[in-house]
Amino acid sequence: MGLLLAAVAAGALGVGHRIRPAPYGDRLLPGMPGEWAVRVRDAAVTGYDRRTGAPRWRYARAGHRPVAVLPARGEAIALWDDGLLTDTDGRSVRWHRALPDAAEWLPDHGGAGVLRPLGRGILAVVSPRRVTAYRTADGDLRWVLPARPGCAFRPEGAVRRGTALLLAQPCADAAWTGQLVALDHLGRIAPGRTPLGNDPPRPRTVRLDAGKALAPPR
Predict the structure, then answer these.
(1) Which long-range contacts (CB under 8 A, 24 or more apart) does 172-180 make?
(2) Which domain holds residue 48?
(3) Fewest CB atoms less than 10 Å from the CB: which of 37, 133, 142, 214?
(4) Could you tell me the CATH number of the domain that includes residue 125?
């Protein structure tokens, strides 16, 4: 009898694990590796085969819709209507990040120009109050640039000039030169700035003795 009860309990735990809701309402129909194009369709982010146009994978979130999507080296970064930022490669959802104050500006904005790639694996998320930069490899927060007091960034008002992103920051009490901000993957472009280490950390080796080194398990 004890073994039977244990088996029933284990089965119940297994069923409970299978029916547990996915984090953030994720609903991913994964696909096989390969090249694909991405676009928003029917309240979901969908990857399509570049040659045939056939759907490869589909990513949706229960009760939400994507307002912007950005392809990034075999991945798709999406901004959702609740201010959640996600990254998927079509086989798994790699990371989630929640944008601050999104409920105050995103409903009226619509997501145009919010996602801005800065190169070298850094994504800028532009909102009226701040620019927030994330590392696309793992979603790590790298830097934050707040707007000047009394000013606001315009996500749609940005242009590329070489490696720099010129971003509009309208201010009532500033000359036009003070209403433009130049950014790159290190943050605001300024003389003498301190470089940032934006690359993912490398695994460290654990030295056993003078002649051998062992890499930690992944």
Answers:
(1) 174/148, 178/148, 179/151
(2) 18-98
(3) 214
(4) 2.40.10.480
